[in-house]
Amino acid sequence: MRRIGQKAVLAAAMAMGLAGCATAQEAPAAPPTPVEAVDPFIGTAGKGHTFPGAVAPFGMVQLSPDTDHRFFRQSYDWAAGYRYDDPTILGFSHTHFSGTGHSDLGDVLLTPISGEVKWDPGQADQPGSGYRSRYNKASEVAEPGYYAVSLTDSGVRAELTAGTRVGLHRYSFPRSAPARLLLDFRSSIYDYPGKVLWSRIRLHPDGTVTGFRETRGWAPGRQLYFAMRFSRPVVGYELRNREEDVPYNGFRQPGRDTTDRAQVQGRALEAAFDFGPIVGPLLVKVAVSSVDEAGAIANLESEGAGFDFDRTRAATRAAWQDALSVVEIEAPEDMRTSLYTALYHSLIAPSVHSDADGRWRGPDQQVHRSDFTVHSTFSLWDTFRAQHPLLTLVAPPERNADMVNSLLAAQRVSPYGILPVWSFHGQETWTMIGYHAVPVIADAYLKGVPGIDGAAALDAMVASATYRPYGGLGDYMDLGYVPIDREPEAASKTVEYAYDDWTIARMAERLGRGEVQALFDRRAGNWRNTFDPETRFVRARLADGSFREPFDPTAINYGSDYTEGNAWQYSWFVPHDPAGLIAAMGGDAATVEKLDAMFEFDNTGLDYSHAEDIAGLIGQYIHGNEPSHHAAYMYAFAGAPWRTQGRLKQIVDSQYRAAPDGLSGNDDVGQMSAWLMFTAMGFYPVAPGSSQYVLGRPFADRIALNLHNGRRFTVTAEGLSDENLYVRSVTLNGQPLTRSWIGHEEIMAGGTLHFVMGAEPNTTWGAPAGARPYSMSAHAMFGR
Amino acid sequence: MRRIGQKAVLAAAMAMGLAGCATAQEAPAAPPTPVEAVDPFIGTAGKGHTFPGAVAPFGMVQLSPDTDHRFFRQSYDWAAGYRYDDPTILGFSHTHFSGTGHSDLGDVLLTPISGEVKWDPGQADQPGSGYRSRYNKASEVAEPGYYAVSLTDSGVRAELTAGTRVGLHRYSFPRSAPARLLLDFRSSIYDYPGKVLWSRIRLHPDGTVTGFRETRGWAPGRQLYFAMRFSRPVVGYELRNREEDVPYNGFRQPGRDTTDRAQVQGRALEAAFDFGPIVGPLLVKVAVSSVDEAGAIANLESEGAGFDFDRTRAATRAAWQDALSVVEIEAPEDMRTSLYTALYHSLIAPSVHSDADGRWRGPDQQVHRSDFTVHSTFSLWDTFRAQHPLLTLVAPPERNADMVNSLLAAQRVSPYGILPVWSFHGQETWTMIGYHAVPVIADAYLKGVPGIDGAAALDAMVASATYRPYGGLGDYMDLGYVPIDREPEAASKTVEYAYDDWTIARMAERLGRGEVQALFDRRAGNWRNTFDPETRFVRARLADGSFREPFDPTAINYGSDYTEGNAWQYSWFVPHDPAGLIAAMGGDAATVEKLDAMFEFDNTGLDYSHAEDIAGLIGQYIHGNEPSHHAAYMYAFAGAPWRTQGRLKQIVDSQYRAAPDGLSGNDDVGQMSAWLMFTAMGFYPVAPGSSQYVLGRPFADRIALNLHNGRRFTVTAEGLSDENLYVRSVTLNGQPLTRSWIGHEEIMAGGTLHFVMGAEPNTTWGAPAGARPYSMSAHAMFGR
């Protein structure tokens, strides 16, 4: 069943599906399969920044329509190249981020053209002014691994599918018109003049088109190679360099006529291919590579020869069905759609980065070869929180091992000897803060992901945590905090470093490396050095030890004391020592009171429109950005899990909808989605690196995890409804569970976690000190 | 003995050398060895465009001082980076062309600094305004494989040597001053804004520095990698990006501080390294690669570990001694210096291009691997004439085979499927005209260079000669000439294509490929289609068959009817059918008259200063550029070899001197020098691809070729003097030689060619029709 992505249309489609079942003797309709339940349009309007196009699970190619490639400072809303409400489509490009707040990519933009070739995109509000086309919104179909749309200007039906390393286009042209294809190699997401440093397009004698471009975008100096083949012979072609070449003094260059040659080089290249009038569709197969053109050709050939669009589509659909079926969800239709789409969005990246032959380009820009599948696109500041912990539960162990080993491989060849910060296509962008590859590795290793060399991993983690030039780390190591007069966003950095350090201590503890453990357990306490006991806020300190004045806990500015946030959000970022934080806050009651103050803050008069990532506000709680994501669970540490439950209901209701504008903030490569998946299951990894998940409350009647160890862990919710928003009681495998947390080993052992829901809170459940997360004897946390 | 490159100083040094021999009981001083006889300063002033620095025979690294990197249209005179009369030195860079008329390279410019680091070169006329330094002219030493100079601003004695793939610097700093080294990675020869597309410098933990840059210079999109190591630890370093980076909207980039990181990327990079005050020299070892940084590191390690400057210097000196000793020269001092320097300049390029591991970057910009040593820097329009034929005689057969196989390998991976036109570092520049790789291959194959697959070579030659989009070839194939209304420089292209085609026919004949032979023998006659029987000039024709009017045989303009020349020079370019040309000219007398008219043309009122390559004029004969190079030998075909002899004396006397400004035009990667070497031996390859050399007259008392087949071929000149400029008689192995040519097989068989010289011409020797070159029965030419 094709899903069309608008709630109303979805309902209509559902009705049609039921109508189609009428012959089945009025048996109750089976719910949509997991693949059918996904709506890739969720997040493509509003602030979600997701893309609707075709991608395989963790696929290297993300083949998706682009409605605009905006220039520089206007680019934020077009980070995925597509906005649901845009009236025209530029074409279809092969690389996209899912949900980022900054962007790049949009490589190898192809547009089918049925008449005269227009070489520039033209204006969206002037039909026919360029190669961009209007399209029929009702014709748009998006499913996992498949996208289709009818372009009204050219009369072309465009269909897209993707394997892991290939994208396939199927274009059905109007009869008798010449079938043509334009490649605009100037174009990219986050476009600006000078972004393309150098590029090349070449038509080989066998009809293969290859190319290369190096861009200085979000990643400086990113190299991208592609290979492309057509199902029909090229009967004419034109390669253009749209930029006047530098004239050389005194020399004729007889071969530099770029219009009749099989190769062009330059900074503003385009190519048009003519297939003549054709009957039946034109298929186009494209692969990309970070390595070289030979790598792209090998990738092109790695998933079968020929042009069997339907076979690739079916294979990728089956891969998605396998990946999504790890989680069985019973929930009302909208919630089920939201959850399967959230799971889908959690399984798009980190993306496969190495070529079919194992070669990949590293942060040193050199080519390396590995015997595992190297992944990239690590949005670690976001994804260490819930997306990677979710993958540890739902993705195959080999995939998780590949990701960790990809981080370690990147560290080995890093020019700085450190783990990735925010990297894609192998390249470091230095975006956001912290060394959050560290908790990702620690969490995976401590949770038993096989195939990780723990000792080598610990060395890499320590190297990252002691690289003095990075983000004030030298001062952090000397002073115990990052001083704001020497390094921006010092308060956020200090608390995030302290948490990362705690995960290093846990790895060291497991590995019996006492000195490392002691050092990093000490550093884990550094959050105290930036906590102001007077205001009870995390605050930035100067090198002389004083807190920076003036202090406004509601101020949000880039490069200020905090990273995309303020004191309200960052004062809760001590996920590894909530007991210490609660004591510093003045005890349980003061903590609950402060959390409530955050959620209920009156924002009248505040304007955060200058800070693009600040979205999804509930008072000073900001669900659209990551620093808040664990905050609602902090009540549980203060003995008030019923307050967590209420807040979760408030957040889920207000921040997620099964609609294109249904995400309140950037999906951030699956983190927003992974938060919802965990929360819906009734537990959340507040401190990855810990073995404990904090219990919240479920949002589905039943969710079963078909774990990769062959066991099944099921969460059931009895009496769940909008009114019954509180947890009355919990059992684990039939035995009462009086604590507000569950251990990773308990999940992996399989069993059933049963919540009984009710309209009134149970204020005693989970309230005693011994029932709270992290409160048990040391062995309850990894390595303790 | 160190040579200082000025005639007067040379003489003084010679006198000192003799003085030093006084103890040897007044025995006559042995002449300088071949290596000692070379003066690398010849050609570094005037129009020669040679460089004085350190290079091994055909070495990948050309490590040489740069006195200026001029901007764009001012760059012509600084094509080799160095001008003898410049007052300051910028530093020492690792890649240089020898004698080109257009330029690029000057990669990895290093400058030793003994105090405060200045980051810009400053002005030559303002001492201290930048990092460039004045130098003591008398301190400058240049020998094959070695260069030294004393920099007066920094007080540093700088010495350079080079192996095949490494450059070694030895810097002796003044005591107590900090020893520092600046790398200006922005800088290059033929500099202009935007030339560096992207670059990277990285300091590895082990102290190795690597880097990359991609430039769009003469070669578009050239990639260069380097690796560098120091003999002393770096105690401080600074990596700078001199260009403001593009600000990104909304994202902090905490790691982008470029001053304290181990890697910088960008378009305007510099690095400074501090070694502190040191006693004893700092040694710096640098290797380059077209492949990647790992390739550069492997090249760095390929010629021995450590920093033994003197060992590398001695090894390269020995390699030069071997290469130069193939030719034994007895001649007056100045002529001997000119000749050994000419031989030296003939053995610098084509340069080794593949890495030590066999990998290389091709014209498709992809990395390939070969099991032979791939060479590049093919200035084919120049070097097909005499430089490659000279290498066939004096370089090892394996070296010649490597060069031919490099051309064939380039064709195999060419985006256009054609042989190189003018390529360096593997990249095609499309400079000049013709497909002159064809005669290079044909000449080598027909002369028996082993290790060439003739059938594959012929296929590659035919592919190049039938690639319709190139230089009017489509029209040439259809019309029998290149029409000037569709393609510039049509007259020159037509005659050069016709000659190249003749060499294809000879290859085909040898290989028994009758149809190919017939086709290209027919095309070889196409010169007639652009010869005007009325004016008896080669002229450009329109597509309608008419000659273009107005016609001025003295006009020289870029992109006009001719290539860097006019009708006077180009009307002689039928080297493969001089008999046909002479007939078209109206017979022997008319030909001699027209040749005389060219040499004796009164140029009053003509100004060719706009055409940079037009230098070395004798009337309308232009020795400083290649189209004239065979012209003096054309008299011999008209039965007047004594006129050839006279003209050669006139040319050698006026166009060559053993002085920095001693070359009348660009050395053109050895072609000007190879002309002198052949001419001095008394014979010249007028039509490479033929087995015959035309006899001129010798310019040395004795020259012996120690052939690589173990035989020796000696040319002796009896009674040679300025007055005795004519050949009276010739014997070969003691038998009278009455013809004015000698066969390649006769040379390779070894023996003695003896000229008896006199003041009066012998107008009967070589005059009869049967005594002229190409006049004997078919077997006298290859394959006939």
TrEMBL record, chains A, B:
Pfam families: Glyco_hydro_92 (PF07971), Glyco_hydro_92N (PF17678). GO terms for molecular function: carbohydrate binding; peptide-N4-(N-acetyl-beta-glucosaminyl)asparagine amidase activity. Residues 1-24 form the signal peptide. It comes from the Bacteria. Residues 38-289 form the Glycosyl hydrolase family 92 N-terminal domain. GO terms for cellular component: cytosol. One of its GO terms (biological process) is carbohydrate metabolic process. Keywords: Signal. Residues 296-758 form the Glycosyl hydrolase family domain. This is Alpha-1,2-mannosidase, putative. It comes from Brevundimonas viscosa.
